[in-house]
Amino acid sequence: MTALTLYALTGAALIGLGLYGLIAARHLLRRIVAFNLLGSGLFLYLGAAGARGDGPDPVPQALIITGIVVALSASALAVGLLVAGARLSGRATLPEEAE
C-alpha cells in the first residue's frame, strides 16, 4: 500500500464520517463540525488524486487552498447564524418532526 493510497482511503473515511454526522446529528453545531470533516476528507482525497503521475499537479493544490479559505469563511458564517438563531429561539437543535 503506497502513501497516496493511504491518503485516499483516509480521505474516503473522513467523507463517510462526515456524511454520517450530517445525517445522525441533531445539534446544529455538530452538523457544522461534520460538514467541515466532510470537506477535509474531500481536500485530502483531491490532494491524493492530484499527486499521481510524474510530479504534483498545481491545479488540485490551488483548488485545495481556495477550498480551505472558502470553508473557513462558510464555517464562521454558519456558526454566527447558529448563535443568532440560538439567541432567538433559545435552543441550538432542530425542531422535532411532526409524526
UniProtKB/TrEMBL annotation:
InterPro entries to which the protein is assigned, alphabetical: CPA3_antiporter_subunitC, NUOK/Mnh_C1-like
Transmembrane segments: 6-25, 32-51, 63-84
GO CC annotations on file: plasma membrane
Signal sequence, renumbered to the chain: none
Membrane topology: Multi-pass membrane protein
Main subcellular location: membrane
One Pfam assignment: Oxidored_q2
Subcellular location: Cell membrane
Keywords annotated in UniProt: Cell membrane, Membrane, Transmembrane, Transmembrane helix
Family recorded in the similarity comment: Belongs to the CPA3 antiporters (TC 2.A.63) subunit C family.
PANTHER family, alphabetized: ANTIPORTER SUBUNIT MNHC2-RELATED (PTHR34583)
The protein's name in its UniProt record: Na+/H+ antiporter subunit C
Phylogenetic placement of the source organism: Bacteria, Pseudomonadati, Pseudomonadota, Alphaproteobacteria, Rhodobacterales
